[in-house]
Amino acid sequence: MNVLENKSKERELSNADHRLIGQQLDLFSINEEVGVGLALWHPNGTIVRNVIRDFWEREHLRNGYQLVCTPHIAREELWRISGHLDYYEQNMYTFGKDGEGYVVKPMNCPFHIQILKAKPRSYRDLPIRYAEWGTVYRYERSGTLQGLLRVRGFTQDDAHIFCTPEQVKPEILNSLDFTRHLLGEFGFTEYRVYLSTKDPQHPEKYMGSEQEWSNAQNVLAEALQERDIAYQEVPGEAVFYGPKIDINIVDASRREWQCTTIQFDFNLSKGLVIFVSVCVVWLVIFSSLFCGVCSSMGICILDIFWGVGF
């Protein structure tokens, strides 16, 4: 591509900025009076969101998930038990009321655990797959915010799979296959895959033993290798409760945006104490296959409405 073609492509991408297109198509707006990083969805944008949601729900039900719905806030103690207050507080919105602390949820994990705990379970019930179209809120520095692609409040497809150690690898493989299907349906065919592992120099940042981390990281790597998926290991990028697979979409200007996360969590079940059945060790796999609706929409707007391919 010569210099003139490069300049033409740059102008095309500038004109195709998802924020400009969103305004022209009356899809969404971000208002400083409401707050930066908080999107307002207009009627046109809500129609598109609902189409995506309906597709997401249909496909998850077809793949053996049960749909759940949880509140936007919870008592601070729940987040203390789960470990989020110790390791993630800097990204959480907290407040007090009637002498009690509350947290605006940054994640849905503890709620799904509580649903599982609501009645006695047998190991014969596993795997159990819960999925939620849930809105979460996380603090992001104002300088990092960018339209729908980086926000403070967003709706994400959020799922948790409760399973035995023997079921972990098949469930991760199923999640990888399901991800390929979902992304393919939206025309996302180019993406880059990362295996985020713990930082060996700072073990204090993570929950769990070295053996647990080694086992978890190995099973994620084996699943990627079994599906012939090329990946790059990124030490230090794991979250505090487990390693993860990140699948990043590549946009029209060759930038990467985090999309799918498939995450191994061997700590949450310990903190929130679930009794599935006597002497059965069980684990949690977290997945967000189509990422946050905001960021997905930001990238989809270019592809669907302007035909800027990936």
Number of strands: 13
Query: How many helices?
Result: 10
* Computed CA radius of gyration, to the nearest angstrom: 20 Å
Q: Please state how the strands of the largest beta sheet are arranged side by side.
A: 3-7-8-13-12-11-9-10
Sheet with the most strands, sense and barrel status = 8 strands, mixed
Percent of residues in β-strands: 15-25%
- Helix percentage: 25-40%
Class by SSE composition: alpha+beta
Uncertain runs:
6-15, 271-281, 306-310
Shape: globular
Look at the structure and give the CATH class.
Alpha Beta
Q: Specify the CATH homologous superfamily.
A: Bira Bifunctional Protein, Domain 2
Straight-line N-to-C gap: 17 Å
Order of helices and strands: HHEEHEEHHEEHEEHEHEEEHEH
Domain count: the total is: 1
- In CATH, the topology is named BirA Bifunctional Protein, domain 2
Integer average pLDDT: 83
Which CATH-level-2 architecture?
2-Layer Sandwich
Molecular structure report:
The chain is an alpha+beta fold and 310 residues long. The protein has a single domain, classed as Bira Bifunctional Protein, Domain 2 (BirA Bifunctional Protein, domain 2, 2-Layer Sandwich). The protein is 37% helix and 25% strand. The chain has 10 helices and 13 strands. The strands form 3 sheets. It has an 8-stranded mixed sheet. The longest helix has 21 residues, at 165-185.
Helix/strand layout:
Elements: H1 3-15, H2 18-24, E1 28-30, E2 39-41, H3 43-62, E3 66-67, E4 73-75, H4 76-82, H5 84-87, E5 93-97, E6 100-104, H6 109-117, E7 128-137, E8 153-163, H7 165-185, E9 191-197, H8 210-226, E10 232-235, E11 244-250, E12 256-265, H9 268-271, E13 283-288, H10 293-306
Parallel strand pairs: 3-7, 9-10
Antiparallel strand pairs: 1-2, 4-6, 5-6, 7-8, 8-13, 9-11, 11-12, 12-13
Helix pairs in contact: 2-10, 7-8
